[in-house]
């Protein structure tokens, strides 16, 4: 056994810590092709890869392929041109066609715009050197290889070197023998050309046509050294036995900067290398294996690398200024580890502390082991505890403690200083104790599965329970005195005023399993968890807890930043340290993670690094300039957020949304794509935001988005439809209103009609009465004169004895009686006079009507020595009601006969286009002026029956007036010359 210990003591582990992480891309995980010819980074931060048949752009997350070029030869080669001028050129294999990469996209240009001939006019074959690596072949069929520099050009031909100045084209042949086989060790810094001479162990330097030899580190001239140079980037790499250096030239000297050691560099590299200083990444391109990215890490993960042993680490103690020591006897440095003493496999990794003498104290097999420092930790003692299970060891504020479990009870033993055999006090606890922190001289914080019990040393009892029900994992005091504690799956908390405040978690809630935290000099908190290491400024966190406005952002470090495993460990005591040299140490599932917090970088993009210029609509890729226009009927659209970002995308909280009312920020995934679907027509703004600094400040970028509507989705159409609907509603309302109004009108008309019927019935009854009265009066009036005349003749006949006279009287009586008889035959029509129609079906002569009445009154007029003359036109005819006209003529001739003696009555006629005019003139007594005015005025009042108030001028003419009104005719009264009256009757045709 002693021999085994001795051998173990001599065992030293010299393990190089991992200083970089590796990402490998090929056709299986995103790269469209495995063959890479060249690599360059443009002025916008995008990485470009030259490949067979395509050019590929890489932004840190995705590869964008450009291949649809109308070229016969798509085998692209090396990059050339100027990065600063945004003009990166790449020729195809035939060097007849060239692509120009500008403004973040490639396009074909004329090869005549780029010179490849070296400005020589002879018939030799020239080839320009853009890049030099250990796969380039300088074949003899090329007469001259040349390099263009700012000051001039070098031509390597005929085992010599020719220099041509750029300004004056002066040609200088350098007095030096130089074979083309030496070109594979050529590289350039600025205007200086260097060639490593492995045989003479010197460096040939060419500058403006002159040469010299300079000294340089031996790595340059080592025959095993390989040199890589690319003109467009100006980068020179020196590769020696797997170690990669960057070459620089300043103050007239060549200098090397060590990057990393990569043993497989000889196998992987075959044509392309590029080192991104900003992101600290080395890109290696292979012609068969794809792209390998070596990311230099700010973290160093130290492992023991022992066979058949895992690398899971828990508790450790600071040992020296720059290392930690575990209970298994392994001392971990940043990049190496060594065993200080042997330890059996049964050791406990979770608890270790140091007593006052520097001895190691840890738990093993339910015992406390003490390894003595003065023996090199080879000698040890142990203290066992019977009937109790040793659960944990703690040291806080000069107190040494151990937690035990006995049955269902849990106890904390306080030892007398560091004498673990002397128990000073036993503190019972309801729950298992997992962490202990001495708050001050009087109070102990006991972190248990049920919260934090505050125990008073002076009162010898628990005085308070903080965070009831929370399973406590670790308790930490930061430099200003704040107490923080982590829990099992319940997050991180802060104790303030004896109350717990839950610290807001990260967006993925990984901090629900936070382990421990350390505070650096800049007040940044570094929090280990089951899924990554988190960083946040303590002042920003406390301010957010006090006033939770805006967004709280954490910066998360994972395997992408150099960790070997994202899972840290925290169920141990102690489980994190700040070493004297300033390094932080956290245990993980795969070694101890060392880092200097001041050297660990954070990466944030700038506003100008965000580009919204590509979109895919209906499966077709389009370029977006000032606005994204989506045609009507589109189903979905993808907007690509191009940002060259080569760290963890989640750390910049890249989000996007449309500025409509219901939108919320959407986290952008690694594909950097924002998808639009089922967006209503209209104009929107697409907002993209990202974290720009550790202060939590967001920056925003905007691009308008217009969705074209269908015609039925336009505002005009909607207004039109709304107008039509309103119009239809109004029409319906109007129709309904009109219907109701019509119905009301019908009802009203019905009532009115009924009223009128009643009124008409009443009027009819009254009119019948008036009619009967008028009829009787008319008949009486019309027969009065003949009857009176017959009566007078009868009287005269009775008194006369003369036969001739009697005969005359008899004859007059006969004629008058005959006419009266004829008149009475028409009394039936007379009775219907006011009810008859105005017109008849047949025409008749006006002359005949007048003649009928003349004969009736002829004998009566003759007795008064009056003659009646009928001078009417025999051709004058009319269809007006005969009975009405007979009644009219009867009354007027009757009045003329009554008022005329020893005179004559003349009846004439005339016609116009609209009227028949009948003139009845007599030479009788005549009418007074008052009577003429009165009767003429009756026709002016014919529209208003209320004014038909008859004066006592006689009934006959009043009846004539009414009859003429009935047939729309008129009558005027005039004074006859020399005496009498003329009545003019105007009968409407």
From TrEMBL:
Domain named Histidine kinase: residues: 778-989
InterPro entries: HATPase_C_sf, HATPase_dom, His_kinase_dom, HisK_dim/P_sf, Ig-like_fold, WD40/YVTN_repeat-like_dom_sf
Keyword Membrane part of the UniProt annotation: yes
Record-annotated membrane-spanning stretches: 710-733
GO terms assigned for molecular function: phosphorelay sensor kinase activity
PANTHER family referenced in this protein's UniProt entry, alphabetically: HYBRID SIGNAL TRANSDUCTION HISTIDINE KINASE C, TWO-COMPONENT HISTIDINE KINASE
Name of the protein in its database record: Histidine kinase domain-containing protein
């Amino acid at each position: 056994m002693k021999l085994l210990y001795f051998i173990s003591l001599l065992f030293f582990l010299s393990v190089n810590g991992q200083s970089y992480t590796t990402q490998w891309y090929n056709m299986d995980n995103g790269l469209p092709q495995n063959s890479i010819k060249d690599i360059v980074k443009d002025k916008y931060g995008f990485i470009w890869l030259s490949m067979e048949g395509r050019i590929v752009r890489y932004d840190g997350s995705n590869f964008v392929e450009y291949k649809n070029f109308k070229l016969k030869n798509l085998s692209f080669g090396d990059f050339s041109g100027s990065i600063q001028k945004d003009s990166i050129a790449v020729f195809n294999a035939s060097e007849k066609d060239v692509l120009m990469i500008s403004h973040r996209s490639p396009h074909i240009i004329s090869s005549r715009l780029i010179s490849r001939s070296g400005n020589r006019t002879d018939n030799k074959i020239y080839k320009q050197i853009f890049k030099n690596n250990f796969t380039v072949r300088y074949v003899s069929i090329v007469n001259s290889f040349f390099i263009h520099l700012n000051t001039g050009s070098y031509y390597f031909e005929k085992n010599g070197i020719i220099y041509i100045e750029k300004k004056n084209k002066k040609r200088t042949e350098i007095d030096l023998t130089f074979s083309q086989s030496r070109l594979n060790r050529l590289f350039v810094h600025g205007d200086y050309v260097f060639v490593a001479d492995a045989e003479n162990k010197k460096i040939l330097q060419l500058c403006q046509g002159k040469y010299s030899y300079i000294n340089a580190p031996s790595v340059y001239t080592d025959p095993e050294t390989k040199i890589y140079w690319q003109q467009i980037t100006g980068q020179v790499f020196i590769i020696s036995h797997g170690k990669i250096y960057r070459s620089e030239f300043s103050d007239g000297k060549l200098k090397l900067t060590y990057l990393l050691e990569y043993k497989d560099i000889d196998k992987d590299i075959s044509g392309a290398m590029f080192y991104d200083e900003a992101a600290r990444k080395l890109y290696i391109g292979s012609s068969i294996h794809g792209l390998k990215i070596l990311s230099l890490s700010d973290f160093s993960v130290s492992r023991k690398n022992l066979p058949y042993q895992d690398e899971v680490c828990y508790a450790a103690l600071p040992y020296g200024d720059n290392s930690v020591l575990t209970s298994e006897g392994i001392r971990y440095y940043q990049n190496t580890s060594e065993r200080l003493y042997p330890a059996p496999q049964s050791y406990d990794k979770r608890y270790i502390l140091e007593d006052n003498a520097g001895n190691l104290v840890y738990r093993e097999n339910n015992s406390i082991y003490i390894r003595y420092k003065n023996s090199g930790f080879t000698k040890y003692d142990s203290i066992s505890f019977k009937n109790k299970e040793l659960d944990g060891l703690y040291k806080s504020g000069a107190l040494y403690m151990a937690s035990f479990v006995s049955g269902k009870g849990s106890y904390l033993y306080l030892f007398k200083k560091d004498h673990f055999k002397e128990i000073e006090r036993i503190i019972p606890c309801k729950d298992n104790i997992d962490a202990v922190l001495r708050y001050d001289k009087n109070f102990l914080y006991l972190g248990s599965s049920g919260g934090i019990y505050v125990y008073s040393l002076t009162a010898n009892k628990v005085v308070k329970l903080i965070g009831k029900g929370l399973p406590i994992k670790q308790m930490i005091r930061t430099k200003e005195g704040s107490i923080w504690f982590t829990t099992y799956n319940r997050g991180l908390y802060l104790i303030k005023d004896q109350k717990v405040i839950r610290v807001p978690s990260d967006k993925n809630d990984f901090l629900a399993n936070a382990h421990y935290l350390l505070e650096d000099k800049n007040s940044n908190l570094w929090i280990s968890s089951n899924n990554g290491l988190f960083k946040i400024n303590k002042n920003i966190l406390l301010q957010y807890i006090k006033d939770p406005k805006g967004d709280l952002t954490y910066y998360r470090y994972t395997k992408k930043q150099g960790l070997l495993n994202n899972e840290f460990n925290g169920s141990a005591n102690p489980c994190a340290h700040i070493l004297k040299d300033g390094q932080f140490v956290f245990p993980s599932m795969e070694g101890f993670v060392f880092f200097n917090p001041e050297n660990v970088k954070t990466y944030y993009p700038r506003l100008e690094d965000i580009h919204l210029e590509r979109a895919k609509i209906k499966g077709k890729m389009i370029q977006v300039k000032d606005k994204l226009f989506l045609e009507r009927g589109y189903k979905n659209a993808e907007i690509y957020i191009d940002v060259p970002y080569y760290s963890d995308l989640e750390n910049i909280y890249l989000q996007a949304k449309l500025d409509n009312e219901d939108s919320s920020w959407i986290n952008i995934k690694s594909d950097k794509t924002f998808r639009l679907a089922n967006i209503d027509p209209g104009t929107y703004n697409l907002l993209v935001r990202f974290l720009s600094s550790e202060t939590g400040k967001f920056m925003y970028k905007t691009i308008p988005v217009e969705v074209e509507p269908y015609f039925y989705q336009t505002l005009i159409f909607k207004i039109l439809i709304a107008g039509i609907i309103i119009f239809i509603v109004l029409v319906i309302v109007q129709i309904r209103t009109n219907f109701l109004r019509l119905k009301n009108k019908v009802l009203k008309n019905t009532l009115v009609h009924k009223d009128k019927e009643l009124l008409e019935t009443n009027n009819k009854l009254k009119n019948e009465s008036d009619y009967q009265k008028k009829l009787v009066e008319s008949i009486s009036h019309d027969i009065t004169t003949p009857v009176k005349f017959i009566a007078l003749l009868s009287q005269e006949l009775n008194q006369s004895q003369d036969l001739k006279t009697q005969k005359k009287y008899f004859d007059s009586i006969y004629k008058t009686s005959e006419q009266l008889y004829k008149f009475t035959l028409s009394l039936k029509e007379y009775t219907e006079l006011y009810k008859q129609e105005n017109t008849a079906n047949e025409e008749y002569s006006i002359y005949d009507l007048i003649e009928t009445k003349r004969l009736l009154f002829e004998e009566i007029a003759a007795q008064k020595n009056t003659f009646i003359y009928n001078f009417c036109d025999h051709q004058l005819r009319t269809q007006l009601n005969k009975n009405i006209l007979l009644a009219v003529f009867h009354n007027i001739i009757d009045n003329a006969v009554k008022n005329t003696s020893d005179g004559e009555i003349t009846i004439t006629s005339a016609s116009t286009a609209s009227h028949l005019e009948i003139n009845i003139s007599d030479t009788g007594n005549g009418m007074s002026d008052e009577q003429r005015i009165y009767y003429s005025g009756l026709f002016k009042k014919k529209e208003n029956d209320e004014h038909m108030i008859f004066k006592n001028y006689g009934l006959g003419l009043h009846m004539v007036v009414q009859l003429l009104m009935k047939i729309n005719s008129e009558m005027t009264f005039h004074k006859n010359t020399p005496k009498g009256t003329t009545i003019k009757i105007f009968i409407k045709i």
